[in-house]
Amino acid sequence: EDGYDLWLRYLPLPAAQAQPALAQLGTVSIPRQNEVQRAARDELMRGLSGLLGQAPREATAADAALLVVGTPASSPLVAQLRLPLKGLGAEGYLIRRVEHEGHLLTVVAAPGDVGTLYGVFHLLRLLQTGQDVASVDVREQPRLKLRMLDHWDNLDRSVERGYAGESIWDWHKLPGWLDPRYTDYARANASLGLNGTVLNNVNASAQSLTPAYLEKAAALAGVMRPWGIRVYLSARFSAPIEIGGLKTADPLDPQVRRWWADKADEIYRLIPDFGGFVVKANSEGQPGPQDYGRSHADGANMLADALQPHGGVVMWRAFVYSHEQPDDRAKQAYSEFVPLDGKFRDNVLLQVKNGAIDFQPREPFHPLFGAMPKTPLMMEFQITKEYLGFATHLVYLGALYEETLQSDTYRPTKGHTVAQVIEGQGHALSGMAGVANIGSDRNWSGSIFDQANWYAFGRLAWNPQQSARAIAEDWVRMTFSQDPAFVQPVVRMMMDSREAVVDYMTPLGLHHLMGRGHHYGPAPWDAGSERPDWDPVYYHRADHLGIGFERGSAGSNAVAQYAPALAKQFDDLSRVPERDLLWFHHVPWDHRMASGRTLWDEMVWHYARGVDEVASMRGTWAGLSAYVDAPRYQQVASFLAIQQQEAQWWRDASIAYWQSINGLPLPAGQAAPPHPLSYYQSLKFPYAPGHH
Ligand code: BDP
Questions:
Q1: Which of 315, 381, 386, 388 to mutate to test the pocket of ligand 1 (most atoms within 8 A of CB)?
Q2: Which residue in 63, 149, 184, 226 is deepest, having the highest Cβ count within 10 Å?
Q3: DSSP state, residue 59
């Protein structure tokens, strides 16, 4: 066991489950006229063979089948059954038992082939998670249109913020060599309903748009297509200059517009179902329309016009912050984009990170959600754990995603969650993107438990209203074991792991306190870099009186970017949620917390709780070795040991630094950091991964 099979292991079910399932599903009728149908068929055969312990028979005449899969067009039997397929759309499906000529059939039916593929994966999941399929009755369709992985992969195979080896894309050997891993990647994504992949880094190289690289992308598109997945590219805004020989990339310049229109034609000749572009513009030094005095809307619309005749979309990122330093970086995206609401073409989505800073262990939801009703806003989550301990910390991000998605925006009124905002608010387009955590490591994600984050992201992109806990439970059952003595403690450990990392890294609303550049480990003392808003001291603002970033009306007033009811709540020191306290306010060290402790004592208490939680995760795992194969057990155990050391390091280094500022003693019973502050400050990590 090396984790390669992910959650698609298809190990034999216990006899008590396998026998009735074989009796119910052991003879199948499934079409194989085109590549999508063949993908569904191969997966069904592979899955059932493994789970049932023997290959199902394929019915010779459709009516001899017990399990029937297809669309009204691909299967005469499905057509005859007159199932209520209306309204399911191109990707929806239903799974049911129906009576037909005196026999009970199990049917996976859909209006379109991709729907049957998703239905097959769903049926297999029901078996894998030990559910009774005897009276199965499922009707599903995705709540979001674009369900995307964004790879931050460079053409030299390095991966920005990647902790799972090199890029999965072996660009140099493409298009001639199609690594079988690409197909397994597509299968895994399709099993979750993901339907798009952005192949290259948002910090894009214009090379990706040259003919040689478009051919490589086309080869990958060919692998993805049978699995319902479209290929997209990150577009570098200045490509017309860099590879087009033009003097400008001004979006209103006719030659520039022509260049992009021609480029789009060229791409669609090679990749007829190309999805479109993601763009990072005027952000962290990337080129963009503002270089020419134009707006983000001008830039996005120019690309949208080029893609429009072919049905492509533009995902324009809202992660922008300019070189002029404002009073608060958290306010920039909202200030720049809200005035542009209603100014984008229909085939543009604005892609917004979950919070206003940058994928921190905890951020309040981004105030843009709900604030641009005339524009489809898509969610951008990070799956790779740039700020959450890289691959060795066990942190289940389902809990983080759920917290953001379930946040009430109060826009237009109370009860309107972020999930509802991204579901489209009546727009034709909607979506969710996850920054992939996938690389060349045999186990894909750098650790077994990081596979759960890919999994949870995919399931939530299909339906952002789902419960993170239920998803974790499915993943554990599919990945490890169905035994409740294993499932329950592991799910509990996963669900608690997110609060643990918040506690030992950045409790009570603290944020952005990690080492510069590589973002590994604590460095709350760090200052003096080329931009103040890259420095931890900019974010915590600790002095001898207190700590925290004042974003209330007495400070940057970032709270005013939220709906009035929320703005009021966040502005009010007595009503702001404590978990976000230091995000929104600069607070005296002796501020009284709900627990009765002072802020300082409460901070120390949180650090301790985080470290203790990791110790207890280790204990939990140590008791479960009997349920897990040795290689996967061992890797998780070793990583938990690393996590415990690093959690302790975060706690000790942070406390040593805060004490150097506030001069306060530790509460009784709390151990002093074992080293002086200077020791923690002296640690350097020039080769930490993920930063280039
Ligand atoms: C930050 C990363 C940086 C990315 C940037 C982005 O540190 O490497 O380029 O986000 O999202 O989190 O564009």
A1: 386
A2: 149
A3: P
